[in-house]
Amino acid sequence: MIRLHHLHQSRSLRILWLLEALSIPYELVSYQRNPQTQLAPDSLKKVHPLGKSPVIDIDGQMVAESGAITQLLIERFAADTLRPSVDSVEYGQYLQWIDFAESSLMLPLLLELFTQKAGVGDNAFLSGYIAQEKGKLLSYLDEALKGKAFIVGDSLSGADFMLSFNVMMMSQRNLLGDYPHIEAYAQSLAMLPSYQKALRIENSSSGSSI
Q1: Domains along the chain?
Q2: pLDDT, tens only, 47-71
Q3: Whole-prediction pTM value?
Q4: DSSP alpha helix (H) spans, 103-210
Q5: Strands 61-64 and 26-31, how do they pair?
């Protein structure tokens, strides 16, 4: 049995969605953010030293980091359906987009969020860097998604699960007006039955706090 330690309103939604798409048995342990600080609760530190989510318990081993969890679950349960063949041209693109979501793209998005919350959004250096880097990365992704429903090939893959958190958060905040292909991609992923079910599960378990 797989146990997912899931923090609401976090990147853990990627893994909740993936588990639903895999249609394998799992147990969900839900955690709520501190309403004042919006940080993860201290109880997550009992699960993993970093006190972050997602974390899965699989075969008695705790595994953190959504990119690692995504690849582990796909290799174990859906190597033939949710990733390209390792000897295909698309496999390198698949790995690139998995890393892109958490490395290149996430950095300016987090910087923008943190500077706004800290009240330093008017810092010329930071605001200039964030705007330039964010625009460059989103333009690159928008062009890559032109005429495509999925980021790699013609079917859903682990790269889509990884990109989903980034693009859907921006879509919900109406931040993709200049990037129509990303907006269409986000809306298309959000309509998938497995994603809709993951959202319902997250919403239905929001009342139980750990």
Answers
A1: 2-81+194-204 (3.40.30.10), 90-192 (1.20.1050.10)
A2: 999 999 999 999 999 999 999 999 9
A3: 0.93
A4: 106-118, 124-144, 158-172, 180-190, 193-204
A5: unpaired
